[in-house]
Specification:
This protein is mainly α. It has two domains: about 60 residues, Homeodomain-like (Arc Repressor Mutant, subunit A), CATH 1.10.10; about 140 residues, Tetracycline Repressor, domain 2 (Orthogonal Bundle). It is about 80% helix and about 0% strand. It has ten helices and no strands. It starts with a helix and ends with a helix.
Length: about 210
């Protein structure tokens, strides 16, 4: 079978063709290289040339996937965090209270950031105001996964209407994000920030249940 015909048939069958597989493999190598170099040398000391060389591609090819080192950081974060949140939601106890389940989610997200707090501080700056459509798209994909999971957790609570679950999920995440910034950006103690977060979530859900 001719290569182009095979690729077309794979596409029609819903499977990626050879060209798409090559792109995905290169992207995976880039993300792996960036992750390793950021962790070993730090964000500031790592260059795009080093990432390209480690991924065994040319610098020009690298910039087809990411326009800057900051874009690469977002790519690494998105891939890791998507895997993290999916594992978190899959492992939540169905017997815990809603606040306990939310805190389990947020505690494990904070654990992820604690593995490299310095890199996470740089990341938080990049997340606040995305500077490219690609970066915005990556962040939106991750936020959809996080908010969908939080909405499902809240939707299981009989005291919260399905109509309010999505809005409450956004409010809960906003409280978590403020706690994260207070810890990583302002130097507050993590345990204190998470205790405040638990109290805020309890108040949020109590007010929501009282509607």
């Amino acid at each position: 079978m001719e290569p182009d015909v095979a690729n077309r048939e794979q596409s029609l069958a819903g499977e990626p063709g050879r060209r798409e597989r090559n792109k995905l493999q290169k992207r995976a190598r880039i993300v792996m290289a960036a992750r390793d170099l950021f962790q070993r040398h730090g964000f500031a000391e790592t260059t795009t040339q080093q990432i390209a060389a480690t991924a065994d591609i040319g610098t020009g090819t690298l910039f087809l996937y990411a326009h800057s080192k900051e874009d690469l950081l977002i790519m690494v974060f998105k891939d890791e965090m998507l895997a993290t949140v999916r594992a978190i939601y899959a492992g939540l106890s169905p017997h815990a209270t809603t606040v306990e389940r939310l805190m389990s989610v947020f505690d494990r997200m904070a654990d992820y950031h604690a593995t490299d707090a310095d890199l996470s501080r740089i990341l938080l700056k990049e997340l606040v105001i995305p500077s490219s459509p690609e970066r915005t798209s990556d962040i939106a994909e991750l936020m959809d996964a996080i908010l969908d999971g939080l909405t499902a957790v809240l939707g299981d609570d009989p005291l919260i209407s399905q109509r309010d679950a999505a809005l409450t999920a956004r409010s809960a995440f906003a409280l978590y994000y403020f706690a994260l910034i207070s810890w990583l950006g302002s130097g507050f103690d993590r345990n204190w920030c998470m205790r405040m977060l638990r109290e805020q979530l309890s108040l949020l859900l109590r007010e929501g249940a009282g509607k």
